[in-house]
Amino acid sequence: MTILNQILDHKKTELEKLKGQTPLFNLDKKKRPSLYDTLIHADHLQVIAEMKRASPSKGDIAAYVNPVEQASHYESAGAACISVLTETKYFKGSYEDLNAVAKAVVIPVLCKDFIIDEVQIDYAKAAGASVILLIVAALSDEELARLHTYATNHDLEVLVEVHDTEELERALAINARIIGVNNRNLKTFEVDLKQTKTVARAFNRPDVAFISESGIWNEADAALVASYGAKGILVGESLMRSNNIIAALQALQVELKAGEVR
Ligand SMILES: O=P(O)(O)OC[C@@H](O)[C@@H](O)c1c[nH]c2ccccc12
């Protein structure tokens, strides 16, 4: 069984618990900027910086880091959005982490989880997210369309994650406005930045905000995916391990040149 299937099986067991409770978080509702608008109008590569304590492929990365401090560094270094892992068993995240970050920053906040049910979207919103992730590989076409509509109707933006050109077609079919290609295959854990190139070449839609996710360590990686057409990048581990978060994040914000070679 692939790791993605293991995570999804575990998720199903948690749904009943979520459905039996009401999400109660303390939050003053903030109007956050639109991630889509930020990406579409970008003149330099936009960074979605991730709060990631651990992962199934790497184990502990920074298990005990303070999410508010981490997110505040990200925000002051010019991040476009903060991604917060809320999956608990494999990534050691929580809705409490998300809520703490949402209270501390004014930029968009992405709830990073394996969403398979509306109740998770309710929790993400209640905890303060303005963006959610939907993973095409984890959902049927019907589920993808239904959850995408549900989130949009609740004033959330949606990052739709794909791995390859077949999944890209499925994302385009539901009119996804923000599409991310995950350079890490969630079935094998292999990371290849060229996935960004392959997917970028398969479509020409300037109205879609296209981002590259995972495996970005330095300015050269950032410049490479920008040259493939990415307007933004989703970066976790390299920032979590950095001992100079601000400098590391600033270095990734490379200039976007008009008419990049794709
Ligand atoms: O730590 P990295 O290699 O910079 O990757 C960040 C992010 O892309 C990764 O955490 C991620 C992308 N899609 C996901 C889906 C679920 C969990 C995690 C992810």
TrEMBL record:
Keywords: Amino-acid biosynthesis, Aromatic amino acid biosynthesis, Decarboxylase, Lyase, Tryptophan biosynthesis. The keyword Protease does not apply. GO terms for molecular function: indole-3-glycerol-phosphate synthase activity; phosphoribosylanthranilate isomerase activity. Pathway: Amino-acid biosynthesis; L-tryptophan biosynthesis; L-tryptophan from chorismate: step 4/5. Pfam families: IGPS. It comes from the Bacteria. GO terms for biological process: L-tryptophan biosynthetic process. Belongs to the TrpC family. This is Indole-3-glycerol phosphate synthase. It comes from Lysinibacillus odysseyi 34hs-1 = NBRC 100172. The lineage of its organism: Bacteria, Bacillati, Bacillota, Bacilli, Bacillales.
